[in-house]
């Protein structure tokens, strides 16, 4: 049998990936990794505060990937719209077989005793329905229909392992992301569909910036931001390129084809913290 070369193992040439929340800091960093490995990438996003055409233009400029980067404006919580977005993506870039579920995030911070039902539900919908269930269901059904292998990558969080204070809906949702990654992996494995996740430590994103950074110009952190750095053995926030390699590894069947149901922390050692 011909031995596979390392560069072939990590090549995604000829593959198409969907990256939801593609204008976000973390999904955009993961997209860069896939583009470097030769994939075509379609950024999906709702485009309210971060328009998808701007994200496409920025990624083209940063990577030189040109037409291999495209975008579709879609609310990933809307199943009908997601089915249409899948068709649109296929038309411009070919049939996608990789899905990165990058939509998600937290909204606000308040004690448990002051939880508001509406806000709590909004965060669950954002992270679990728009951020995982709806796009995964639509893609997995399409892959089953065409008898095609597929790879799904979900985004968990440090909150998936130990609750972060004041963000209970986010903690509940991200714990469920770990669990749903395992249950979907179990159900979809017989169809050749792998479901894994990454659990980023702390990266400065659009939604968590205010919680962590007090004054960007002066480089001053909030008390919470300082606590995070103190608990991170590498002593820094995550950088975008920390996420590229793991994204390529999990997306590539040749590199991780027997791996499913796992979530890999990319956290500078945050989870190892002890006294
Ligand atoms: N930044 C961090 O430190 C960190 C750490 C761990 C996990 N995460 C997770 O990583 C993922 C991305 O986080 P980020 O910090 O890059 O966030 P971000 O806010 O920068 O990006 C999220 C993107 O999703 C889009 N979006 C929101 N709802 C949508 C919907 N219904 N349909 C389509 N698009 C929608 C937003 O417009 C935004 O562009 C989230 O799941 C987040 O919880 C982030």
> What is the CATH top level name of the largest domain?
Alpha Beta
Number of domains: 2
Q: In percent, how helical is the residue content?
A: 40-55%
The average pLDDT score comes to: 95
Describe the structure in brief:
By secondary structure, the chain is of the alpha/beta class.
What is the strand and helix layout of this fold?
Blueprint: H1 6-9, E1 16-20, H2 25-36, E2 40-45, H3 52-63, E3 69-73, H4 79-93, E4 98-101, H5 117-146, E5 150-155, H6 168-188, E6 193-200, H7 209-212, E7 213-215, E8 220-221, H8 223-231, H9 244-251, H10 253-256, E9 263-266
Parallel strand pairs: 1-2, 1-4, 2-3, 4-5, 5-6, 6-9
Antiparallel strand pairs: 7-8
The chain binds nicotinamide-adenine-dinucleotide.
Nicotinamide-adenine-dinucleotide (NAD) binds near residues 103, 105, 155 and 157.
List keywords for this structure.
275 residues; alpha/beta; Rossmann fold; 2 domains; seven-stranded parallel beta sheet; binds nicotinamide-adenine-dinucleotide
Q: Would you give an account of this structure?
A:
The protein has 275 residues and is of the alpha/beta class. It folds into 2 domains: 220 residues, Rossmann fold, CATH 3.40.50.720; 33 residues, no CATH class. It is 43% helix and 16% strand. It has a 7-stranded parallel sheet with strand order 3-2-1-4-5-6-9, with helices on both faces. The N and C termini lie far apart (51 Å). The mean pLDDT is 95. The structure holds nicotinamide-adenine-dinucleotide (NAD). Nicotinamide-adenine-dinucleotide (NAD) binds next to helix 2 and helix 5.
């Amino acid at each position: 049998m011909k031995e596979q070369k390392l560069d072939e193992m990590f090549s995604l040439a000829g593959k198409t990936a969907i990256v939801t929340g593609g204008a976000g800091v973390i999904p955009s960093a993961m997209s860069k990794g896939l583009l470097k490995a030769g994939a075509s990438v379609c950024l999906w996003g709702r485009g309210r505060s971060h328009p998808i055409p701007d994200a496409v233009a920025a990624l083209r400029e940063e990577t030189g990937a040109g037409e291999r980067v495209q975008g579709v404006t879609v609310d990933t919580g809307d199943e009908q719209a997601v089915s249409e977005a899948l068709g649109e993506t296929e038309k411009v870039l070919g049939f996608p077989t990789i899905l990165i579920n990058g939509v998600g995030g937290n909204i606000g911070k308040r004690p448990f005793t002051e939880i508001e039902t509406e806000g709590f539900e909004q965060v669950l919908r954002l992270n679990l329905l728009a951020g995982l269930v709806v796009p995964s269901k639509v893609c997995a059904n399409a892959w089953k229909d065409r008898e095609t292998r597929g790879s799904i990558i979900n985004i968990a969080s440090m909150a998936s392992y130990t609750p972060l204070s004041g963000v209970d809906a986010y903690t509940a949702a991200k714990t469920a992301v770990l669990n749903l990654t395992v249950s979907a992996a179990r159900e979809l494995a017989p169809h050749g569909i792998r479901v894994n996740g990454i659990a980023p430590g702390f990266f400065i994103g659009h939604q968590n910036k205010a919680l962590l950074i007090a004054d960007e110009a002066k480089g001053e952190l909030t008390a919470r931001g300082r606590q995070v750095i103190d608990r991170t053995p590498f002593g820094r926030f995550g950088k975008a390129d920390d996420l590229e390699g793991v994204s390529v590894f999990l997306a590539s069947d040749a590199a991780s084809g027997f791996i499913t149901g796992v979530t890999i922390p990319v956290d500078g050692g945050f989870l190892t913290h002890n006294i």
